[in-house]
Design goal:
There is one protein chain. This protein is an alpha/beta fold. It contains twelve helices and eight strands. The two termini are 27 Å apart.
Length: 299
């Protein structure tokens, strides 16, 4: 990372510890943010190609909460099991085991692809008092106005998997393609914030263990969506959606909220799929109200 975070001052005041735990045969790296004596603990699951750093900006505005933020298997500093297929069932089993070991009974939060993993896990029985979904993937990725772009992405990841390993991996880590993805998702007109967003993607978007893990995660991300699991979730659920999200249009998010037994939808204007970078204070405010976390002047 070469561009300072706009939220660096807040993050510098947030206690953080790194840990490792073995989950389903491999080491999962995770970070614990916030005070050990917090009344509320969350497990935060990041999105596709990302890792735990992606959600730090939101956590910077939740200093009263204790947040456990793991790297998904095969991303960041978490190892995959060689030869294992990381489909959605495996991610669900991993999250359920991780939560049982590290923070049983925690509030579960997922962003983007993490919204699919967390929703599927809660629908499958992962115990949590509440569920929070940021930029939830609310409809099949191959449908809707951006279906053509998704099909192009399918071709890109398929080519990366079929080329000789060195060439395929280089294609998947290509900096120009990562930058194009970043430019497409960013909506802010603030040049400093745009530089930060692009630097975040340049730094963390290619920290996957190998192309097999990346291919599996991509297939899982486009083969499932939150709408498949919503009706099986009976805990209070908060959806934080962007009015300019190119991946799931806001009209679809409004319909998705109606599929849950008990859901609240918070819409954020003038932002797309990068709520966690562009409007983290607004996202944290919605989370704070949903969890009834009071502002502590001592933090």
């Amino acid at each position: 990372m070469t561009v300072p975070s706009p939220y660096a001052d807040r993050l510098s005041r947030l206690p953080v510890e790194r840990h490792d735990v073995e989950v389903r045969g491999a080491a999962t790296a995770y970070w614990v943010y916030g005070p050990a004596d917090a009344e509320v603990t969350l497990i935060a699951v990041h999105g596709f190609r990302g890792e735990h750093h992606g959600l730090e900006s939101v956590l910077a505005f939740l200093p009263e909460a204790r947040v456990v933020a793991p790297d998904l298997p095969g991303f960041g500093e978490s190892a995959p099991v060689p030869g294992k297929t990381y489909d959605l069932d495996e991610y669900v089993a991993w999250l359920s085991d991780f939560a049982a070991q590290v923070a049983p009974g925690a509030v579960i939060l997922g962003h983007s692809f993490g919204s699919i993993v967390t929703s599927a896990a809660v629908a499958s029985g992962l115990s949590t008092p509440k569920l929070i979904l940021i930029n939830p993937i609310g409809a099949p990725a191959l449908e809707g106005p951006k279906g053509v772009m998704t099909r192009l992405a399918v071709l890109y990841y398929a080519l990366g998997a079929k080329l000789p390993e060195r060439l395929g991996t280089a294609l998947l880590r290509n900096g120009l393609i990562v930058r194009i993805m970043s430019i497409a998702m960013a909506k802010t007109s603030d040049p400093a914030l745009r530089r930060f967003i692009h630097d975040q993607h340049d730094t963390y978007f290619s920290r996957f263990a190998d192309r097999d893990v990346l291919r599996d995660a991509f297939v899982a991300s486009v083969s499932h969506d939150v709408s498949q699991f919503a009706s099986s979730i009976d805990v209070p659920t908060l959806l934080i959606a962007a009015q300019r999200d190119d991946i799931t249009p806001i009209e679809v998010e409004r319909e998705l909220a109606l599929r849950f037994a008990d859901a609240e939808l918070v819409e954020i204007a003038h932002v797309g799929h990068l709520i966690h970078y562009e409007t983290p204070a607004e996202a944290a405010g919605a989370i704070r109200r949903f969890l009834r976390i009071p502002v502590s002047r001592a933090r």
